[in-house]
């Protein structure tokens, strides 16, 4: 999902993404009706199929890329590869800004942060009273596992 999220933020034209990426992000993909969604596992990519997508750039998770699970040499034969997400920390603003600045899109970083801050300011009066004194857990559950997200990385 790292690749899809950062590609959307960068304003890249997304032509395909694996079903392993969060489906809720589909609404964020501009012109999603023409976007190919394919069932693909990181540990067993179908190189022949991926090569038919005509991608000019493959944006992949650095975590998987660093393990070699993607078949890195074969992926690089299909298109240039941009591994992303290696330096994710709770400082998401910095991670996003560093990524967009690194690809020459610092203007986009400023734009995205301004949009985010404006949206938060707009919904805060409605959400804040509803959440006062409450705790929120962000949890993802699958058939064989559960993951939770917290800001304490000890």
List keywords for this structure.
Fe/B12 periplasmic-binding domain-containing protein; globular; Rossmann fold; 2 domains; 42% helix; alpha/beta; ABC_transptr_periplasmic_BD; 154 residues; 6 helices; two-stranded parallel ribbon; 14% strand
* Order of strands in the sheet with most strands: 1-2
Q: What's the domain count?
A: 2
Hey, roughly how much beta strand do the residues contain? 5-15%
What is the helical fraction, as a range of percent?
A: 40-55%
The unreliable regions are none
Rg, Cα atoms, Å: 17 Å
Q: For the terminal residues, how far apart are their CA atoms?
A: 24 Å
Q: How many strands?
A: 6
Main sheet? 2 strands, parallel
- Mean pLDDT across the residues is 77
Fourth-level CATH superfamily of the largest domain? Nitrogenase molybdenum iron protein domain
Going by helix content, strand content and strand pairing, the class is alpha/beta
CATH class of the largest domain: Alpha Beta
Query: Which word captures the global form?
Result: globular
CATH architecture of the largest domain: 3-Layer(aba) Sandwich
CATH fold description of the largest domain: Rossmann fold
Number of helices: 6
Order of secondary-structure elements: HEEHEHHEHHEE
């Amino acid at each position: 999902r790292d690749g899809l999220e950062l590609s959307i933020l960068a304003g890249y034209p997304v032509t395909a993404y694996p079903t392993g990426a969060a489906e809720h992000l589909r609404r964020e993909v501009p012109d999603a009706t023409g976007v190919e969604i394919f069932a693909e596992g990181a540990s067993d990519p179908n190189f022949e199929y991926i090569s038919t997508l005509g991608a000019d750039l493959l944006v992949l998770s650095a975590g998987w890329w660093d393990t070699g699970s993607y078949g890195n040499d074969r992926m690089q034969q299909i298109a240039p590869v941009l591994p992303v997400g290696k330096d994710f920390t709770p400082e998401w603003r910095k991670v996003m800004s560093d990524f967009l600045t690194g690809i020459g899109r610092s203007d986009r970083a400023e734009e995205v942060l301004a949009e985010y801050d404006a949206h938060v300011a707009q919904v805060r009066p409605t959400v804040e009273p509803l959440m006062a004194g409450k705790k929120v857990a962000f949890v993802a559950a699958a058939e064989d596992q559960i993951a939770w997200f917290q800001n304490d990385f000890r």
